[in-house]
Every structure is written in C-alpha cells, then in structure tokens.
## 1
Amino acid sequence: MKVSGMLEGKIAIVTGGTRGIGYEIVKKFLEAGAKVALFGSRQETVEKALGQIKEKIPEAEVMGLYPALGEYNEVEKAIQEVQESFGQIDILVNNAGISARESIYEYSPEEFDKIMTLNVNAVFHCIRAAVPFMKTQGGGSIINMSSMVSIYGQPAGCGYPASKFAVNGLTKSLARELGKDQIRVNAVAPGVTRTDMVAALPPEMVQRISATIPLGRVGEPEEVANAVLFLASDLASYVTGAILSVDGATQV
Ligand code: NAD
C-alpha cells in the first residue's frame, strides 16, 4: 500500500523501534516521509536496526538512541537531542514493552516493578519530556501501544494487563488534558501479532490461536503499524482519546 507523503515534514520518535512492531512502525513512518528517531535498549541493537533500515531505504533520515526509558533524566536528554538534531517533535510512539506470564503465586515484586517501569513509567517519562516541545510548536500526536489484554485481562501474568490498563488510563486522561494544546493522544490495542515471539511458537499452537479469531489468523506487525500511521497522520485530525483495537475481533 502506498503511504508516501502521509507524514511529509514530520519528525517522529518511536520507542522499542529495533524489532517487532516498533521496527515496522519506523519503516512505515520513513516510507510516509517522516524523519524518525528510534529508541532501543542497547547500542548494538540500535546500530543493527539502523543498518538494516539504511539498506532497505537508503534515503531514510533516521537516528537511533538508547536511553534507559525508566530513568527520566536519560529520557529528557534523549528527547532534547532529537529536538536539536531534527528541529521539532511532531509524533511520539510509546511502543517499547515487555510481558510476563507468571502466576500470582510465583510473581516477584521485582518482576512486577520491571513491567511497570517499562510499560507505564517509561510512557509517562517520554510524554512528559516531549509535550513541552509539541505545545510550543502548536500540536502533536502521541500513540501509546496498548494490547487486547487491556480490555479482557489475562489469566496469568497480571502485571502485563495491569500495565496496559494504565496505558489506556494515561491515553484517555491526557487526551482530555492536552486537547487544548492541539496534542492528540491515542492508543492501539493489538491482538496476537506475528513478532519473533509468535514466530517461535509451534505451528499447531498458532493454528489453535488463529481458529479462535474471527478473521481466522494472527495479525501482522505491518497491520499494527498501519493503524499507528493513521493515528499519527492528519487523517486522524479529530481522533483523540481512542483505543483502537487491531485484533481481528478477538474475543478471549
Ligand atoms: P518485541 O519484544 O518484539 O519488541 C519490543 C521492543 O521493546 C524492542 O524493540 C525492544 O528493544 C524494546 N524494549 C524491550 N525492553 C526495553 C527496555 N528495557 N528499554 C527500551 N526498550 C526496550 O515486542 P513486540 O511484540 O513488537 O511489542 C511491541 C509492543 O506491542 C509492546 O508494547 C507490546 O506490549 C505490544 N503488543 C504486542 C503484541 C504481540 O502479539 N506481539 C500484542 C499486543 C501488544
């Protein structure tokens, strides 16, 4: 699908942009004409992703940073660096996230903290550091990566759904708070999506999961990226506070 021009002249930050859904979002945004700063967790994975992108899209204007997203000072410094390098910040995609499936009987407080730090605190940190720039330049678009588990919960690993309920809460509240500054805040809630984790599952298991989904298959990372692109773009100029499900109508 041709998307060229949809984000012409826009500057975007994508966290967790080195692989999976985040990597697809970075590529989609570049194809749509944006300049992109991708944030990853480590220098090596950031450099590898930048190399792959440059090979696929030689004209891409892309930079990579690896702030510890759980540390506000590091996030603030990285976002300042993007502002200095690219001159503005129009789009922020809070995509980085981790999950866990431990039973409550085995769940350690440290694991719970780790999930909350990346899936919730980091989202707050990035938004807190980016919105002053967006306000000054007259607006922006923030997209947070939620999950279908933010609607249904899940039967193990309570920290992950709890973190995604919190992401929805940040999304809905900040949409109301930041509307006056022309900053839109939305979330995308994917169902099971074919990232490395799903690709590593036995095919029979993927088939079993697919059979429970009305569209009869798991989602592709690009399909999630398409929804993020829509929300980032001016096509969604009157959409804010939405939690957009991209899950083939999964009912769990
Ligand atoms: P993934 O594991 O393939 O990628 C996760 C990304 O987050 C990577 O780029 C990684 O570098 C980054 N990351 C992990 N720990 C980090 C840290 N400490 N600091 C900075 N970055 C870190 O995951 P994915 O499946 O592409 O998931 C991306 C988002 O989509 C997550 O928020 C996830 O909760 C959500 N999601 C995924 C699915 C799915 O089925 N894959 C479904 C619903 C929601």
## 2
Amino acid sequence: MTLVTDVSLRRVLDSRGNETVEADVQTESGGFGRAKAPSGASTGEYEAIELPVSEAIAAARETAIPRLVGEVFAGDQREVDAALHAADGTDDFSDIGANSAVAISMAAAKAGADVAGLPLFQHLGGTFRGDTFPVPLGNVIGGGEHAADATHIQEFLAAPVGAPSVEEAVFANAAVHQEVGEILEERGVPSAKGDEGAWAPSIDDSEAFEIMAEAVETVADDVGFDIRFGLDMAGAELYDADAGGYVYGDKVRDTDEQVDYVADLVEEYDLVYVEDPLDEDDFEAFAELTDRVGDRTLVCGDDLFVTNVERLERGIEQGAANSILVKPNQIGTLSDAVDAVERAIESGYDPVISHRSGETEDATIAHLAVATDAPYIKTGTVGGERTAKLNELIRIEQNA
Ligand code: PGA
Ligand code: ZN
C-alpha cells in the first residue's frame, strides 16, 4: 500500500477531436498511473454527469485532490473511489464531473498496479483464464447518432463467438470490417466511417442486414469458426413519444411493433446480441422482449441501466434484459462499475464491458473485462483508439 502523493489533471484530445480529462496519479513509493475519460454521443438520460472539461478539472482540483493527496492509498481502490464520492457529494458526480472522477479512479488503479508490479487486470483481482475470455463485439456498420445519413440502427456488431483465442477473434472482426468494405464497393455504395470506425453508408437498415449476413458468413468460412452478429439499436434515440414510437425515417413503429420487429430480427438473423432495443424508460417492454427471445440472445441494457446498480436491481425485479453494458464513465468510478458487474453476474445477467463513441488510447477497459471475466467486450474494430484496447487484450493473452 502506498500513499497518493500527487494527482494532476489536464485537458487532452479524444478521438472526435473534443477535449477530455487526463489524470496522472503518483504515489509515495514512485508508483505512477495515467488514465483518460471517454465520452458518449448517444448518452443515456440517467448517466453520471460529464461536465465541460475546464469546469470538471477546476472542481476536482478544489475538492477531490485535497481528499486524495496524502490521504488515500493507491492500492485501495475502494478508498480512492469513496474519497471521490465524498468530495463530490452528489449521486451523479455533477459537482466534480464524472469525467474527472473516472479519469482519477482509473489512474489511481494503474498507480496501484504499478506499485504492486502487477498488470492492471491482476491488480483488480482477475486472472486471464484462456478457456474463457472476453469476446470482442466489433462495430462494422453504424449510423444513428454516430454518423449522419447512415443506418437508423446505431451499430451492427460482429461477434466471433467460436473464436479459439482473443487474437483470432480480434482479427476476425477486422476481416469482417474489411469484407463489409469490399461488399459496399462491389455494390457501388460510397462510404465514410462513423465515430467508432464502422462503415457509415447511406443505406437502409435492411441492406445493412444483408451485407452483415454475407460478410459474417464469408469470414466464418475463411477462418473456420462461428461468427454471428448483433446490434446496438440505441432505442432511446429512435424513440419519440410525440411521433408515437420508434422512428425509422418515414416509418414509425409503436412499442408492440418494435418488440415484434426485434424478435423477428433475432429469429431471422440468429442475432447473438441486441442492445437497447427499446427506450431507456421502458422496463416493461424490455421484460416482454426478454421473455420472448431471452433464451436465444442477449438482450442488453445500456441507456436502460447506465452501469447503475439501482437501475439494474429494477431490471432484475422486472425481468428486463439479461445482460448489462458496463461503461465506467456512466457511473464515475471503477468500484461502481465492478459493483454493477458483480450484481449482474449474481443475477445471471451477462456483463459486456464497453468503450464510448468518443475514446482515447486508454486501454483500462481491456483490463476491466479480463479482471471481471466478462463474456464480452465492445470496443470497435479499427482505428487507434479502438485497437488500443484490442491490442492490449492480445498482449494480455500472450503473457498469460
Ligand atoms: P455512446 O455510444 O458512447 O455514443 O453512448 C455507444 C453506445 O451506445 O453503446
Ligand atoms: Zn449502446
């Protein structure tokens, strides 16, 4: 155990060219950790609050840093995160900003790992097991809030469920991404990439399903293991109460129609994963869909749960979803994120550790996924801020 002796905060760039918070934590015995906050675009209404970077830094300097420096041990993550909560004093980090909180929390964890001479995932209490590993869900076609004039569904995700290793899974997703690019070219569809590096063509969702099915099958044949696919529908972004339901351009589906539509998609495409198929306030419709397809696919709550144990409890009670997306910056600290994972596992919900659309080269979530033995990690396919996590997973596997 080693005392935190310095915490410094600065403004750095994220992958969208926006500013974000970077934290450096130093300890008495020479330990050092550095981490950066990611940032969402299709953020859930109930997430912890991200403040403008200059405000978050100023507030954390004033109230959080004095409670950390000379006061807490970098090796004791619970103590660090309790100090962040005490400094903030709200239940959503609206005083110091979830962006400052999560950067400090993750930097302290890395400093603790440095002092212990352990990789971060081991410091967080995990081991790389090899027989199970986090399967990367890779966004290969996307639209919604992440790209203008593209698909209505936010993310079409490759899921190499039969991959024998992390390395092969990561390369399979990259191959699906490449294959999708080739199919688009053959079809004469020009395409740029969205915020997460997925192709963002101006096509209907139905064409995206065709292309995904073809690309996944071609690559599965090449690599010789099973690859399926899934979706993040970002239902809260599609939902417009005034319009009477889920808006897909000119077409609007009411809640019952949306449940039917998603259940049909699961059936038709053998989807392995459906995230936020419904609005973030509609636990009931989530429960209905889970009842219908939960034995065949993961119904995952992102904006529904926002990595928040209280919202997860409500889901467990109602049978809404059977999986939870875990984004440390949605809740503000690593300890809170781990609590959500543990509560999920106890209740038979599969945790999926996730990046945000605005990312950095920070690879903490790769370690969090291994530490918690999560069955999935959602962290993109290509692009430096995505490969930072994927390559870290490959290194963890190789050194195991
Ligand atoms: P976000 O999108 O980071 O923009 O919120 C990712 C997601 O919805 O999973
Ligand atoms: Zn999502």
## 3
Amino acid sequence: IKDLCVTVGDKKILKGLNLSVQAGEVHAIMGPNGTGKSTLSKVIAGHPDYTVTSGSVEYEVNRKKINLLELDPELRAREGVFLAFQYPIEIPGVSNAEFLRTAFNEVCAHHGVEPLDPIDFNALMLEKMKLLEMSSTMLNRPVNVDFSGGEKKRNEILQMAVLNPKLAFLDETDSGLDVDSMRIVADGINKLKSKHNAFVLITHYQRLLDHIVPDVVHILWDGRIVKTGDKSLALEVEEKGYDWVKKEA
Ligand code: ADP
Ligand code: MG
C-alpha cells in the first residue's frame, strides 16, 4: 500500500498511508478511535463509499501482480482478499450454509477447480465449525440474524476458515468477545496461518496478541501509520496509551 489517500464525501480520512505485508506474516494495527483503521480495511475490500484520491495498492498472488484498486469487490474476494467486518451485517433470507457454499463455489469457479459436492462441502463446514466451537444449528439460520455479538464475530471467522483467503483483514474481531471466545477465535486464526497467507489484525487489545503473536505492530493515527515496531509496541501502548505516539508523530 503506497501513499494511500482516501476521502468519504469531502472528508479526508487516509492521508498517505504506507503498509507492506508479506506472505507468512501477521500484522497488528492499533490506534485511537476514528483514525481510519476500518476505512483502510474497507478500501482494501472495495467498499464503494470510499474514494481513493491517490496512492496505490499492489497485491501479488499466485505470481500475478494485481492493481487491487481496479478490481470489483467480488473479484478481490475471488483472488483471496477477505475482510471480517467490525460490524458484521445481517442477511435475512439467506442461510449461513447457502451463503458459505455460494461464496466457496465462486472462488472454485474463478480458479477453474471443481466445487466440492454438497456432502463433502457440508463436512468441510462442520469441521470448521467444530474448530470454532459453533453449534451446527447455525448453518440453517439466516446469516448473522439474531446472532449475539460474539456469535457474529465467530461467524466471520467461520467464513474465513471456509474460504481460506490469502490476505485477511480482521477488523476488531476480538471486540465484544468473552475470554473463552477470544481464545477459540485466536486458535482458529493460528490454525489457518501458514507461509502462504497473511493476516492484518485491527485491535485495541493486547489480549488478542497474547494468543496470536504479531510479527509487526503498527500505530495508525490521523490517517497514517505513524509508528511501526514489534510485539513490544503493543505492550507499550497498553501501558502508556497513545499520547506519546501522537507527540512523536
Ligand atoms: P476507526 O476504525 O479507526 O475507528 P474509521 O475508519 O471507522 O475509524 O473512521 C475514520 C473517520 O472517518 C471517522 O471520523 C468516521 O466518522 C469517518 N467516516 C468513516 N466512514 C464514513 C462514512 N461512510 N461517512 C462519513 N464519515 C465516515
Ligand atoms: Mg473501526
């Protein structure tokens, strides 16, 4: 991500953001509320409300270099980009199973591979749900409708586990989770992690980072990444807050 500037309406949100994430890495992005963290993740996913005024996002996958900003959101997803929303949306009338199967089949078709037959796909979903300690009854319920806050967050991770993305942004997936749910979600992420994929965790809390040790920690403030360090930077923020980072910036 190079010098990314983003506006919504006439409000400037990202103001020259630079970030480089390699396969096999886990990055954490921290920062005060309202500084542009969710905006960054939504721009990567292709949310239509946000206008990129300058800068570029290059995404390299399967030895292809892709100008990510030129692709429609669904093409980004088929190429392996995934976003777990800070506020997962409800989709009445579409069952979780139907949603997952349709998304999974789209990815298969894009890569020219045969989709799984329904029995094998069902087995895949159940395996992933077991990993996340989710009840199989959630498969037949409409996506996120009447799910508790924690269930919605877990459901985002289920989508991720089924789709097996190359680059995943997780926007405050840990917020609102109790201690056990946090551990289950973190274990799920740790099991998916490999040298072929990368994760960007947007979080306020050190607690998640105790379970998923990040390779790099960034502080986003006022639309830019103003400080980058290792996992000790997250501990420093926990202890001292953000004021010292703002002063330095
Ligand atoms: P963070 O995730 O770091 O808390 P956001 O990226 O959600 O911050 O928001 C950054 C700023 O941009 C905030 O001031 C927010 O109110 C504003 N903003 C984000 N999206 C929109 C939108 N669609 N319309 C108007 N303002 C927005
Ligand atoms: Mg946010």
